[in-house]
Amino acid sequence: MQVRGSNLFNRTIGENVSESGLCLVNSEFVAPLTPVMLEIEVLSKVLHPIGKVVWATPYARANRYRLGAEFIEIEPQEKKFLTDFVNMSR
């Protein structure tokens, strides 16, 4: 994950991926409405959607934050791949 306009990349853990977004566990707080550039490894493919943080909460008993990111730009073929992956995982 990279906050748009920043040179810093943060390695995060993704949880609860869907066709419209995902939850990230990050070591730093990122305010809602912040645009982020994502690299998401799904199976053998790396997806590159652009998202925005829609919520952020402290992670229980850890020095981390859970961030909800909504995809605002994603290539059509990447969206189809992600949709197929999510449907296959159900």
Characteristic terms for this protein:
two-stranded antiparallel ribbon, Thrombin, subunit H, alpha+beta, 1 helix, 16% helix, 90 residues, 8 strands, six-stranded antiparallel beta sheet
Write a short abstract of this structure:
The protein is an alpha+beta fold and 90 residues long. The protein has one helix spanning 76-89, and strands at 2-3, 13-15, 21-26, 35-37, 40-42, 45-47, 50-58, 65-73. The strands form two sheets. It has a six-stranded antiparallel sheet, with no helix packed on it.
What features would you describe in this structure?
There is one protein chain. The chain is α+β, with helices and mostly antiparallel strands and 90 residues long. The chain has one domain (2-89): Thrombin, subunit H (Beta Barrel), CATH 2.40.10. The chain has one helix and eight strands. It has one helix at 76-89; strands at 2-3, 13-15, 21-26, 35-37, 40-42, 45-47, 50-58, 65-73. The strands form two sheets. The protein has a six-stranded antiparallel sheet, with no helix packed on it. Strands 5-6 form a two-stranded antiparallel ribbon. A hairpin with a 6-residue loop joins β7 and β8 (65-73). The model has no long low-confidence stretch (mean pLDDT 92).
Secondary-structure blueprint of this entry?
Layout: E1 2-3, E2 13-15, E3 21-26, E4 35-37, E5 40-42, E6 45-47, E7 50-58, E8 65-73, H1 76-89
Number of helices: 1
Main sheet record: 6 strands, antiparallel
Can you tell me the CATH superfamily? predicted glycosyltransferase like domains
Summarize model confidence as the mean pLDDT: 92
In CATH, the architecture is Beta Barrel
Radius of gyration: 13 Å
The SSE string, one letter per element, is: EEEEEEEEH
Uncertain regions: pLDDT < 50 for 5+ in a row?
Answer: none
Within the largest sheet, what's the order of strands? 1-4-7-8-3-2
Name of the top-level CATH class: Mainly Beta
In whole angstroms, the N-to-C terminal distance is 26 Å
CATH topology: Thrombin, subunit H
Overall body shape:
globular
Count of the domains:
1
Work out the number of β strands: 8
Q: State the secondary-structure class.
A: alpha+beta
% residues in beta strands: 35-45%
Overall helicity = 10-25%
